[in-house]
Design brief:
Elements lengths: L2 E9 L5 H17 L3 E5 L5 E8 L2 E13 L4 H10 L3 E8 L25 H13 L1
């Protein structure tokens, strides 16, 4: 039974556009060779700054995929990711399908207190008391 996975890879900033496209196509080929199918693939590859240094780099390119494959097909994909020296880090995660609860969500409604009319004279009297203290 196929399962849905998400793959995110950080690629070295020294890589050019051609090598990034080669990495994407080699990952796609490994997924398809494992009888999987790509659901989405991030096509615009932009340079991202890292929160901390990774293998001597402070920025790099992010590529990501969402795909379905048999769990035993992941072995070849991970092997491919480890062999590529341009890939600084990768994260391969199981992606759960989100099921929305159709029940109505209770909302908080503050109680309405009955308003009382207050005379202007009473307000003035209260102000005088406060100021005289």
């Amino acid at each position: 039974m196929t399962k849905k996975y998400e793959l995110a890879c950080l690629v070295s900033p020294m890589s050019d556009e051609k090598s990034i496209l080669e990495i994407q196509s080699s990952i796609t080929n490994k997924i398809e060779a494992g009888k999987g199918r790509i659901i989405t693939q991030k096509s615009d590859v932009a340079k991202r700054s890292f929160g901390y240094e990774i293998k001597g780099y402070t920025d790099g390119y992010l590529i990501s995929f969402v795909f379905e494959i048999e769990p035993n097909g992941l072995i070849n994909i991970e092997k491919e990711l480890k062999e590529k020296k341009e890939i600084l880090r990768y994260l391969l995660a199981f992606k759960k399908d989100i099921k929305f609860d159709k029940r109505e969500i209770p909302t908080f409604k503050p109680e309405q207190k009955p308003t009382q009319k207050v005379e202007l004279k009473e307000i003035d009297k209260k102000i005088e008391e406060i100021l005289s203290e």
